[in-house]
Amino acid sequence: xxxxxxxxxxxxxxxxxxxxxxxxxxxxxxxxxxxxxxxxxxxxxxxxxxxxxxxxxxxxxxxxxxxxxxxxxxxxxxxxxxxxxxxxxxxxxxxxxxxxxxxxxxxxxxxxxxxxxxxxxxxxxxxxxxxxxxxxxxxxxxxxxxxxxxxxxxxxxxxxxxxxxxxxxxxxxxxxxxxxxxxxxxxxxxxxxxxxxxxxxxxxxxxxxxxxxxxxxxxxxxxxxxxxxxxxxxxxxxxxxxxxxxxxxxxxxxxxxxxxxxxxxxxxxxxxxxxxxxxxxxxxxxxxx
Length: 289
Hints:
Blueprint: E1 2-5, H1 42-49, E2 58-59, H2 82-94, E3 106-109, H3 112-116, H4 124-143, E4 148-152, H5 161-164, H6 168-194, E5 201-205, H7 207-216, H8 268-288
Parallel strand pairs: 1-2, 1-3, 3-4, 4-5
Helix pairs in contact: 1-8, 2-4, 4-6, 7-8
């Protein structure tokens, strides 16, 4: 599995470090890596918890990434965009290594920062350009043999504390752009599939619905059943804690009982539920095919 994305996906993998192998299927850094979830993220859970067999995972995601830094600027100029993840990391390093079209899955979770950094502009032309670039990157991967693609929809980050604190107008405004992004993602993925004679397998996971369900009622998933706070976060926990279940009396509840670790990033339980949902979705789609 080759993975691309932003902070919801990153584990801090270095292409020049230890490579995935049977004793260490994600290579580097040590499990669960440098995540934004105060524990494993969805990539960790897919690789270690929900894998049906041995899975090697190359996680090229980078925190803060947008599709193309020239179109939507990230929070720091050093952030590695999706474009750079594909063109500068994957293609030179892994395009011609020992993977096959049949057994490699290319997974993408991108758009959170594109939306978050630009939604108030109300600029459809910008999103046209973003998806044209996104689409061109898929073609680059197709040309070297990629045939299995998994896309994760942008979750309802308009319900994160960062947006909640700006009021209902911001929540609704960003929410509309998230819906538009996810609609475009479906259109792009189907068009990408349809224009090739050797059709790739394309899967679009409704991550928006997974998050929405858990935010509405954490008990809907066994992985999120222990969450008690879905709207706030505790500043004592916001930069990570000594372990995944840390309790500080200033926060009232353990860190893993907050949906949000800080004002934008969720804790690991929803990542666990997301990974489980992806497996269920892929199983269902495989049965249909």
